[in-house]
Amino acid sequence: xxxxxxQTSARFGNAIGVFDSGVGGLSVLRAIRAALPHEDLVYxxxxxxxxxxxxxxxxxxxxxxxxxxxxxxxxVKAITIACNTATVVAARSLREQTHVPVVAIEPAIKxxxxxxxxxxxxxxxxxxxxxxxxxxxxxxxxxxxxRMVLQACPGWVELVEQADLQSARTDALLRQFIEPLxxxxxxxxxxxxxxxxxxxxxxQSITGPEVTLIDPAEAVARELVRRLTDTLTPNASQxxxxxxxxTGDVTQVQQAVSHLWGHGAVVDALTSD
Length: 273
Ligand code: DGL
Known about the structure:
The protein has helices at about 25-35, 55-75, 85-95, 110-115, 125-130, 135-140, 155-160, 170-185, 200-205, 215-230, 250-260; strands at about 5, 15-20, 40-45, 80, 100-105, 120-125, 145-150, 190, 210-215, 240-245, 265-270. With about 270 residues, it is α/β, with parallel strands linked by helices. It has a 7-stranded mixed beta sheet with strand order 1-11-10-3-2-4-5, sandwiched between helices. A 4-stranded parallel beta sheet has the order 7-6-8-9. The protein starts with a strand and ends with a strand. D-glutamic acid (DGL) binds near residues 52, 84, 85 and 194. D-glutamic acid (DGL) binds near residues 50, 52, 53, 157 and 194.
């Protein structure tokens, strides 16, 4: 088993751990920060091993367990999987192997089915997510009588990692996967990858305002609040801290985090030896 070394020697007892393959999980972190302003948050971008969406299930499971165990070893009081791909492949394994509560995002198929008027729902996600048994199960459970169109979107994660949220290249890559869904009558699109909410304004400019985009980040934050009711920081007067770590190239991840989260954010290296 490879071991992680944090370049700073901090431990994060009482914080909430959040991780993704990269910076996409910041879309979930921002919902958690809004819901829990006084909690300390620790975010891991596993960028040295990303993107997850095109990797094998064995790789995704191994990374989920490694990052999850590291967070548990730091003493966090909960782990949030802010990555749909890691959830559908490996959330069960992580829950079996840690004593820390695990809250995991998954594609918001149930609310999308409730909202569609045309009866056609598009699910935008990574290749591993659209092929997963979990998504097939959610579609079977909630999608009766509806048409569920599952669409893998290769290249979208990289756009967000490079903070290229509005450009001719971005528009072309988004259109490639959105226009076929619109042509099939989809009026509701599930953002089934945590990177995609950062592309919402570019996506909505292609779909127009009539199409509903669904991001379950706030539902994840609510679930975290529900699970942690007894251990939330009481009556804190100070805002909680937010720490960022990456297993990837610190300079590159720092640029993306500064762009997507804010310029005060500092990213530290999390190296494995
Ligand atoms: N952000 C991740 C998700 O929600 C996946 C990105 C990747 O392919 O690494 O699925």
